[in-house]
Amino acid sequence: xxxxxxxxxxxxxxxxxxxxxxxxxxxxxxxxxxxxxxxxxxxxxxxxxxxxxxxxxxxxxxxxxxxxxxxxxxxxxxxxxxxxxxxxxxxxxxxxxxxxxxxxxxxxxxxxxxxxxxxxxxxxxxxxxxxxxx
Length: 134
Known about the structure:
The structure is a single chain. By secondary structure, the chain is mostly helical. It has one domain (4-130). It has helices spanning 4-22, 27-40, 45-60, 67-78, 83-107, 117-130. Helix 1 (4-22) runs antiparallel to helix 2 and helix 3 runs antiparallel to helix 4. The N and C termini lie close together (8 Å). The relative contact order is 0.17.
């Protein structure tokens, strides 16, 4: 088992809690973790680049709302084991993200900002259980 998997899971729990409480994440936290994951998974750089492109498209479409979401997308993308898992990741990101936005808007009618990082925690755990995280 890759020692980085539980570290990233705990990190995503940590930043999800911060995002839920404050609706903002200090940039250095996610950038630092992105750098650590990139250094420890250098063979997955192409999946990270593909994740960045998808994240940028979702950012321009206003599906995700911040640079922290882009960084979290790339962190999870760097942990994927293959291109087929990447396609499932994109599909699940859109499905979980849409479900999360509908749920939050329904429960908190006056919410202006949505904490979106918990979606990446759910995605990471789902892909870990299914075997797509390496």
